[in-house]
Amino acid sequence: MTYLLLEQLNMIQALPDAQRFMGHAKRTKPAEDPSLTHTQADSPMGEAMRLHWQPVCMSSQLNDLPLPVRILSEDLVAFRDKTGLVGLLHKHCSHRGASLEFGRITDKGIRCCYHGWHYAHDGRLLDAPAEPANSPLLQQVKQGAYPVIEFKGLVFAYMGPPAQMPPFPHYDSMHLPDVELVPYAISHDCNWLQVHENLMDPLHAVFLHSRMGEIQLTEAWGEMPAVEWFEKGDRVCYLTSRQIGAHVWVRFNEVAFPNFGQVAGFWEDGLTAKFFERVGASRWTVPIDNTHCWIFGWRHFSPSLEAKGMGNASQVGLNQLDIYGQTGERVYEEMQRNTGDWEAEVSQGPIAIHASENKGSSDRGVVMLRRHLAQGINSTHLPAGSIDGQTPTWTCNVVLHRPSPMASDVEMKLSVPELLSIGRSVKTVILAADCLSPPLRQAEIMAQLQALSKPYE
Amino acid sequence: MTYLLLEQLNMIQALPDAQRFMGHAKRTKPAEDPSLTHTQADSPMGEAMRLHWQPVCMSSQLNDLPLPVRILSEDLVAFRDKTGLVGLLHKHCSHRGASLEFGRITDKGIRCCYHGWHYAHDGRLLDAPAEPANSPLLQQVKQGAYPVIEFKGLVFAYMGPPAQMPPFPHYDSMHLPDVELVPYAISHDCNWLQVHENLMDPLHAVFLHSRMGEIQLTEAWGEMPAVEWFEKGDRVCYLTSRQIGAHVWVRFNEVAFPNFGQVAGFWEDGLTAKFFERVGASRWTVPIDNTHCWIFGWRHFSPSLEAKGMGNASQVGLNQLDIYGQTGERVYEEMQRNTGDWEAEVSQGPIAIHASENKGSSDRGVVMLRRHLAQGINSTHLPAGSIDGQTPTWTCNVVLHRPSPMASDVEMKLSVPELLSIGRSVKTVILAADCLSPPLRQAEIMAQLQALSKPYE
Amino acid sequence: MTYLLLEQLNMIQALPDAQRFMGHAKRTKPAEDPSLTHTQADSPMGEAMRLHWQPVCMSSQLNDLPLPVRILSEDLVAFRDKTGLVGLLHKHCSHRGASLEFGRITDKGIRCCYHGWHYAHDGRLLDAPAEPANSPLLQQVKQGAYPVIEFKGLVFAYMGPPAQMPPFPHYDSMHLPDVELVPYAISHDCNWLQVHENLMDPLHAVFLHSRMGEIQLTEAWGEMPAVEWFEKGDRVCYLTSRQIGAHVWVRFNEVAFPNFGQVAGFWEDGLTAKFFERVGASRWTVPIDNTHCWIFGWRHFSPSLEAKGMGNASQVGLNQLDIYGQTGERVYEEMQRNTGDWEAEVSQGPIAIHASENKGSSDRGVVMLRRHLAQGINSTHLPAGSIDGQTPTWTCNVVLHRPSPMASDVEMKLSVPELLSIGRSVKTVILAADCLSPPLRQAEIMAQLQALSKPYE
Known about the structure:
3 copies of one chain form a homotrimer. The first copy, chain A, has helices at 34-37, 44-50, 137-140, 192-196, 203-211, 332-337, 341-346, 364-378, 416-432, 438-452, and strands at 54-58, 67-71, 74-80, 86-90, 104-106, 109-111, 118-119, 125-127, 148-151, 154-157, 180-188, 226-232, 235-244, 247-256, 260-264, 274-277, 279-289, 292-301, 396-401. By secondary structure, chain A is α+β, with helices and mostly antiparallel strands. In chain A, the strands form 4 sheets. In chain A, strands 11, 12, 13, 14, 15, 16, 17, 18 and 19 form a 9-stranded antiparallel sheet that branches. The first copy, chain A, has a 4-stranded antiparallel sheet with strand order 5-6-7-8. In chain A, strand 13 and strand 14 (247-256) form a beta hairpin. The longest helix of chain A has 17 residues, at 416-432. Chain A is globular, with a radius of gyration of 26 Å. Chain A starts with 33 loop residues before the first helix and ends in a 5-residue tail after the last helix. The model of chain A is unreliable at 1-12 (pLDDT under 50). The interface between A and B is large, with 52 and 66 residues.
């Protein structure tokens, strides 16, 4: 009874029943879990991330000027020299510490503004023009630098111990025919993990993206799915299965240790059959420091993925994406009225407090992911093998005709076990094809799924 | 001799006499007094404040969107559901920590944006729609919440242990006939105490509001008063007595433990007799955290209080008041040229350093207030009793004809003891009427004061 | 091999040779050297600075309002009272701590806004108007204050122990005939030392100001000089000698313990003979706190110094100077494209990390300066003696005809030893004249240098 006009009660206002209110009992907040959330040098999660290639900027950010970047709490400067080589150097010049963001890009490196020390993209000191030509500094000094690979508009660096540098991970989804990868980068004012684990949380899509307000994707997302989560090797995955009228839409998403993830195409409506349509976005959640992070990734565009014309490659780039609610650049009132992933993730605080959570069965993916990360820190998950230089990934949308003994049952709702069973059949088909070379695999999976789709015809 | 043109002295510039300057000797600053200034959970003063109802926002701030508020270093979200009930919940959802400031207000509570968890105004979990209907979470989870009472446009919360929740304090001044209470809220970038103790410091009005520059209220405030401070129960009070020509203006102000205060009408000029004219503003100084606070309160408007037309209810609200110098929203140069309470208080620093002060006889109220607060922390001051559901308060302006054996003495200045004696007579009349019911009390006090006003007629 | 189009390599992208990259090995950063960089009260360097007169603001900043200043991590308020006396007081009023930046300037001091306490420029409490006339506070209270001398548009304070106050340092360069001293003040967002030591680093001018991009001064600065650094008493100095065609330009700069420095005229082109042309700027690098500082100083203007019309006294003042790149008020892209001293200094970080540097022979001045500072902290360097009330300084530009046995050798480049020898001859002439009174000295040095300039005629 908290809202009474005093006048109505002759000046005796009823007090609330205080015993019901738990604010005082629950006011003390536990601390964050540093083992998964902290990523500076020498932190367990930070060292695990450093053993993998990490995006650090977009190619389009490298013009004729150096770019200061902060990654994993390290201050760095990226640049492309005039031969096209990309360098990623420690920010402060080894000479007297001026920032190389004010350096001059040269034919084969960068010169510090202050005294002209000239570094190659790999940190070699090529020239220290105020020193004698025989200065021992030229042999002794190396600017801190990290190996870089540039791929499809993203610049990746390896920041771990040199002896442990892994191959660059060529996921099959980076090489699909007819797919254009459009790079993007979105900054978040919070810890990396609360952004990343959203990928293994399919239920939020039902609410945040659908039922809570405006339809942010398609109506089908608002249908409650049956979900199966599973771990396999370096992956954590889920399949959601939703009945959409006479069809069942199975969505298969995955993350790979430590911070890569893929989601299937965004605009699925589940209304027509579809067999192994692939990825909508591939992305890495990269810590800037412990309370800020980037999503670096690619939006995938193809005629099939964009058949409905809902995507827009021209809106994909630095702090912009053609999916609603992914950036922090809207006004506060709009964030309140039509909340997106960005607010749901960032508003958990600078570092989300796991010990304050109350997780249910719908959070199984988040629980599984955190455990998978913890295990990965202590004993690296083996990365999956590759075929023809590509590592198979599973992310896809599949839409099957619903199984039914008779067409007249088409209005009957499938049960959760029936939906889960369909999802598992899809999973079985897809995983079984890992050993095939890419074009064979695509054809084989599509054929098998098409077969699954026709039991009642 | 610090300002000499060298040329005038043939290049021998006299040095200052360094021994006179105490900057070096006094450069080390002591620390603040945490016992009175710190108010986070488990701090002595913070726990004392939590045993009392505290305003947390204005009713007008609660529209169709949730309102994030920070009170006593706790992050909260206030909202009014569609039935009109006001809730005050911990900011972070008990599920996975998304901020409820991005929740959707419902018919009977608020739903978290992320997975739709639905909380009643008292923190009960009504629904967790991604969980099974029989999920134990529905019984186990309670969102941190505090009991709320809404009154006259302010929302009050009780943030202490439930078993110790006191009645809502119905001061008589909240129920005066013909008085409109207009709510306001003003943020201050400093600790709460340096804002609150200004209320027991009547001398600053002579200087800050009058003699230092522009007349911010009326000329009468610039007259040096005789002051009596006293403690009684949960109150610290003062009476200032000023001779204004043929009249004596007695002003009676009070604060109540821990952070409530009232000041009498603002526009008094002392030129005409007045008997027990009441309050100009009632207010609470509420910590946001240890270095920020709100004043929440009501400006009182009545035909009598505003007879001069100097107040303006349309200028009273969020970070605005119809009294000069009460907000931080003026430009710096205006703050320097015509300084108000806001600057005098905030410029003492994030937390004023008591150990650096040099207090004199004019600071007796501040000293008394701090001692009263320290005593209140250790053994709660008993709140005053109530009559007909109202607790009597004393704040008022009284203007009496000056006592004089002969009309010809009217030009003679009253001495400080004479002024103090008049103040004490007023105090005696007013305090003696505490036991009367509100309408009787008003009539009795006015009659007694009117009698005091006529000794020489 | 970091920039390969995958397509060109049939999807097998070559990995960089990780062993060459030292980023991981060098990622841990040591701490700053607090003994030279920290300057708060009781720090070794801070106490050394407090034993010297320090500029704290410009005269032009003192108008009819008080000026808050922060110097050596102390919060202060400067003001000029109505008789012209300048006061420098602790910011917080000794009464109850309100900031004196909101005080009222009076005929002979300043009154606190809050209760009108009235302080003289030396901190004496002249009046506490809310207290009785016989209050012991009037004798007991002194506002923290520092002795001040105002000179040529700068306000200097002595913030050390009164018994050790030194004379004001009248350098000869403050009293040169026909020279106008135009005061300026430039704030820097970094520690003082990385700003100050730039003065003993003549090589940066070759790169930062010349070869790295636009010519910021004259082309002659881009010629690599032969440099000699030396210490003498409280000074660290250098002479740079550059052959400019048929002339040799010798530039003589100096710093004096702890934070004073002078640089010779800026616009020298070395094309015509010049004998002992003096100072371009005299300046002190004054800590605001450990991560911010001011340069306070004078630009020197004279018909001779400004013969080329490149300077502009109207661009000299608060955060502006008529030399490119000295302030932080340009846009970031311009800072990147045409980098100035401000960025080179500030971008070293809040406090430059000496232990991360790799210093070479060109950094000898910086090494010498830091050692000189460390020695000065432990045993004060004796200041140089004065003649006729002036302390001789050496800063100057000298341009001599190059020595040559035959005119036909004029195209031959002088060797570094030859250039050093010429520099030393100039140094010998200038230092030998220290004992002469100012006008005699100027004439004597010019005559001697003129003699040096004619060996091959």
